[in-house]
């Protein structure tokens, strides 16, 4: 996972390291819903079909909010224009690798933070291209709410929305990760002359899909018309002469983001930090990025990496919304530096940090899962091989036993030991991963109990872990 301003992060971290030794350790605060300076923390993932304009929209928003200075944008404009990609200048705020800029596509999650009137927002800009859906899944697994960006351009909305486009798959994945609030940004309305008819027609189709098929509640879906390229309706209402002013009186994108609700978190639960990136491992220290899904952590705490059970001590914490801190709470993302004895390759993305002893999260290989099958061509059978995604982890797996087919709405058994599970069916199945993994029942930790199953580059099912079996 890359970060838009790695350099300043490293500087912050160095500052944290030099000052930590002289700072006396503070007492542990009562873990709250990670409210910081009176503002609630919310993690928002930005998704949508390839080229919907996600990075441009968010880059322009960050620029208007003052997080990117005029000189930097000017530099991006010049460089992008020399590279024959002038229209990508704002996208470069978030797409910061050479490869992404050369190809004009986001490949990995870009993470950045900004503030609204009442929120501290950690923004995860996800790739739209089908090839990078696994990275999008990692982003969605860390988010509390989502911004779904729709390209309103004639023909392009249709491509993104029809089967094979990423709009539907992204929305279904969001819901399977427990995201219930979705802000739909209808983008590129400048390309259709800010047509109200076009906007209304798109809203009707997306709303129908979100509420009837993807499982979102109508009152949790907000729609906002925008142009990421021109910067219209992002942080300020459009002027009186703008076409949008004739038919839209609703919120700006920023107001709609501010209105998102931070979810109830497992603040009092046992510590669970999902590792999303490992930057540097030395024999006696490791630096990594992660999200606290449950509990809280302080510098000085003794912790364990699961499933390897390697012990370590937390040295420095750098939250995404603050440069340096002594304690980080549930819902926060950031960078962690730990000391211990680390063998090469014993810690990686997808591992989970726990406290209170290695046996507080028992690694397992076999799971009982309640599964919802997507619209698939080839049914799932005993012996089917696939990849299991859970939080930031991906592991090859096998369907060992199909226990029952169940009724989607009330969970009653429709058939025991079915021969297969085909499209849109639901079932209780036993899945075995090739290696032991850090997964828990959904009732113990929601983020560690939600899984996505993919096969040959397509999502075939989503589910929740009912039980770990062995
Ligand atoms: N006319 C117009 N073009 C836009 C708008 N927003 C983005 N674009 C253009 O659409 C193209 C793709 O923009 P990106 O921001 O890279 O799209 P993306 O959704 O982040 O792309 P991926 O992450 O690779 O899926 C660029 O040429 C942008 O300038 C808009 O509001 N209006």
The outline comes out as globular
Strands, total number: 24
CATH class term of the largest domain = Alpha Beta
Beta strand %: 25-35%
Kindly provide the radius of gyration, computed on alpha-carbon positions and rounded to a whole number of angstroms: 22 Å
Number of self-contained structural domains? 3
Oligomer: single chain
SS-based class: alpha+beta
Helix content: 10-25%
CATH topology of the largest domain: Rossmann fold
On the 0 to 100 scale, the average pLDDT is 87
Bound molecules: guanosine-5'-triphosphate
Tally of individual helices:
9
Q: Kindly report the name of the CATH homologous superfamily of the largest domain.
A: P-loop containing nucleotide triphosphate hydrolases
Most strands sheet: 7 strands, mixed
CATH architecture of the largest domain: 3-Layer(aba) Sandwich
- How far apart the termini lie comes to 31 Å
User: Stretches where pLDDT falls below 50 for ≥5 residues?
Assistant: 1-26
GO molecular function, one term: GTP binding
Protein name: Tr-type G domain-containing protein
InterPro entries: GTP-eEF1A_C (IPR054696), P-loop_NTPase (IPR027417), T_Tr_GTP-bd_dom (IPR000795), TRAFAC_GTPase_members (IPR050100), Transl_B-barrel_sf (IPR009000), Transl_elong_EF1A/Init_IF2_C (IPR009001)
GO biological process, one term: translation
């Amino acid at each position: 996972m890359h970060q838009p301003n790695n350099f300043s992060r490293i500087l912050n971290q160095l500052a944290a390291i030099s000052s930590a030794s002289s700072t006396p350790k503070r007492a542990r605060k009562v873990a709250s819903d990670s409210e910081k300076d009176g503002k609630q923390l919310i993690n928002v993932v930005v998704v949508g079909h390839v080229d919907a304009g996600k990075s441009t929209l968010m880059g322009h928003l960050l620029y208007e909010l003052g997080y990117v200075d005029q000189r930097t944008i000017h530099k991006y404009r010049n460089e992008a224009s020399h590279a024959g990609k002038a229209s990508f200048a704002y996208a470069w705020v978030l797409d910061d690798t050479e490869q992404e800029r050369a190809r004009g596509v986001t490949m990995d999650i870009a993470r950045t933070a900004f503030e609204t009137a009442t929120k501290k927002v950690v923004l995860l800009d996800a790739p739209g291209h089908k090839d990078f859906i696994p990275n999008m899944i990692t982003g969605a697994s860390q988010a509390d709410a989502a911004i779904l960006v729709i390209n309103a351009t004639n023909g392009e909305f249709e491509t993104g929305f029809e089967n094979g486009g990423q709009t539907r798959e992204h929305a279904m994945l969001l819901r399977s990760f427990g995201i219930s609030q979705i802000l739909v940004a209808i983008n590129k309305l400048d390309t259709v002359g800010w047509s109200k008819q076009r906007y209304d027609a798109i809203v009707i189709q997306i709303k129908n899909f979100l509420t009837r098929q993807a499982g979102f509640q109508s009152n949790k879906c907000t729609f906002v018309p925008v142009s990421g390229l021109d910067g219209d309706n992002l942080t300020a209402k459009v002027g009186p002469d703008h076409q949008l002013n004739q038919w839209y009186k609703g919120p700006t994108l920023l107001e709609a983001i501010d209105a998102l609700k931070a979810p109830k978190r497992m603040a009092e639960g046992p510590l669970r930090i999902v590792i999303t990136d490992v930057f540097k491992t030395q024999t006696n220290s490791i630096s990594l990025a992660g999200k606290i899904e449950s509990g809280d952590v302080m510098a000085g705490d003794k912790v364990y990496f699961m499933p390897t059970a390697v012990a370590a001590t937390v040295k420095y914490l750098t939250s995404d919304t603050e440069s340096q801190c002594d304690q980080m709470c549930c819902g926060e993302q950031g960078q962690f530096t730990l000391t211990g004895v680390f063998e090469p390759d014993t810690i990686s993305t997808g591992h989970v940090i726990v406290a209170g002893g290695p046996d507080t999260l028992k690694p397992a290989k076999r799971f009982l899962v309640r599964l919802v099958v997507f619209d698939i061509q080839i049914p799932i059978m005993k012996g089917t091989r696939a990849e299991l995604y859970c939080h930031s982890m991906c592991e090859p797996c096998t369907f060992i036993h199909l226990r029952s087919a169940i009724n989607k709405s009330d969970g009653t058994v429709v058939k025991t030991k079915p021969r297969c599970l085909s499209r849109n069916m639901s079932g209780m199945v036993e899945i075995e991963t090739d290696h032991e993994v850090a997964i828990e029942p959904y009732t113990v930790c929601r983020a560690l109990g939600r899984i996505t199953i993919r096969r040959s580059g397509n999502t075939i099912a989503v589910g929740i872990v009912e039980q770990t079996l062995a």
